[in-house]
């Protein structure tokens, strides 16, 4: 009977632990894996492993670091197995123009702000170098994917979560000196990837941001390519994971958008505002009788212009996103 009572108490304690940390662990797994689908799978593995080891946890106050250690190691295992994470590239329904380059992170997916809102507001440790908004933006998450797995993990644990080297080392099964080396190499690689300087974007949810994104929605949904190009920076990018094609600059982006509009032959898109990765976003459907979902679009803003359009060509993602009440629906009827 006593054993049953202890097990019951353990379940209650584990439930409380789970409730306190589930959402921040999902964000952690997503940062390392770049894929919401993979992050959800690895989170389940993490929670199962945590349940099995919960009775051996000696200090409940150390539970958060213990959970992060489990989650990090499950993510490292998944990151080493690239084959299961690379989705098949969709076959384009029309012949696209030659891309500026081929993307190298085809498994990248957006992360809904509704899930970010459910994560506890935990202040990072004193070692943190990135504010919460920077550490979830698509560009940052994509950059992490290009790092060796242990470097990415060291950078997230130390520079995002703010754990000092002495506490980060057990999470990675390494010495503080080894973690310091991983961290230095990760920072250097990340700095090289993030050379392109961008102007400060409008405040999230501000009238300025809403005006810019609404103008984008109207231009995109009505195939007004010239109006859309007027909103872009000179070095803007259009990416469409898991498709590898990426287009840089007005001429390349315009060529792709006009080819797409020509193929659709008058069928236009309907955009509904939402948010992903702390950035303005839209769910996208064909504005016809089928109302077929086609993609999720995330915008990276630079000053009063758009620096990057990432259109995720996976119609299964839309169920994660709730239309925002702050914006208006835009379609071909606008």
TrEMBL record:
Residue stretches of biased makeup (Basic and acidic residues): 188-199
| Transmembrane segments annotated in the record for this chain | none
Gene3D superfamilies noted in UniProt: 1.10.1740.10, 3.10.450.50, Winged helix-like DNA-binding domain superfamily/Winged helix DNA-binding domain
Coiled-coil positions are: none
- Any GO MF annotation of the entry: DNA-directed RNA polymerase activity
What range(s) does the RNA polymerase sigma-70 region domain occupy?
17-85
Keywords from UniProt, A to Z, are: DNA-binding, Nucleotidyltransferase, Sigma factor, Transcription, Transcription regulation, Transferase
Assembly, per entry: Interacts transiently with the RNA polymerase catalytic core formed by RpoA, RpoB, RpoC and RpoZ (2 alpha, 1 beta, 1 beta' and 1 omega subunit) to form the RNA polymerase holoenzyme that can initiate transcription.
Protein name, please?
RNA polymerase sigma factor
């Amino acid at each position: 009977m006593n054993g049953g009572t202890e097990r019951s108490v353990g379940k209650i304690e584990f439930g409380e632990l789970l409730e306190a940390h589930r959402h921040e662990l999902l964000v952690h797994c997503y940062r390392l894996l770049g894929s919401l689908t993979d992050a959800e799978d690895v989170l389940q593995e993490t929670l199962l492993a945590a349940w099995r080891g919960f009775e051996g946890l000696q200090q409940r106050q150390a539970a958060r670091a213990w959970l992060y250690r489990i989650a990090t190691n499950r993510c490292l295992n998944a990151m080493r197995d690239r084959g299961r994470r690379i989705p098949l590239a969709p076959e384009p329904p029309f012949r696209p123009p030659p891309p500026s380059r081929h993307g190298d992170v085809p498994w990248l997916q957006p992360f809904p702000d509704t899930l970010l809102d459910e994560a506890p507001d935990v202040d990072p440790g004193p070692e943190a170098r990135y504010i919460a908004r920077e550490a979830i933006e698509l560009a940052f998450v994509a950059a992490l994917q290009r790092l060796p797995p242990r470097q990415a993990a060291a950078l997230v644990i130390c520079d995002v979560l703010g754990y000092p080297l002495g506490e980060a080392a057990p999470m990675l099964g390494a010495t503080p000196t080894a973690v310091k080396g991983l961290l230095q190499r990760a920072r250097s690689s990340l700095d090289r990837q993030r050379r392109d300087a961008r102007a400060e974007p409008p405040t999230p949810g501000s009238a300025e941001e809403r005006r810019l994104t609404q103008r984008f929605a109207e231009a995109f949904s009505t195939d007004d390519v010239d109006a859309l190009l007027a909103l872009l920076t000179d070095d803007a990018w259009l990416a469409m994971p898991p498709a590898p094609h990426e287009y840089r600059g007005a001429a390349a982006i315009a060529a792709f958008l006009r080819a797409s509009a020509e193929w659709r032959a008058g069928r236009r898109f309907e955009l509904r505002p939402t948010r992903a990765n702390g950035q303005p976003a839209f769910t996208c459907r064909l504005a016809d009788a089928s109302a077929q979902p086609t993609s999720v679009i995330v915008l990276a803003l630079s000053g009063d212009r758009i620096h990057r359009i990432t259109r995720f060509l996976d119609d299964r993602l839309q169920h994660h996103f709730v239309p925002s009440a702050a914006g208006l629906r835009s379609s071909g009827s606008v």
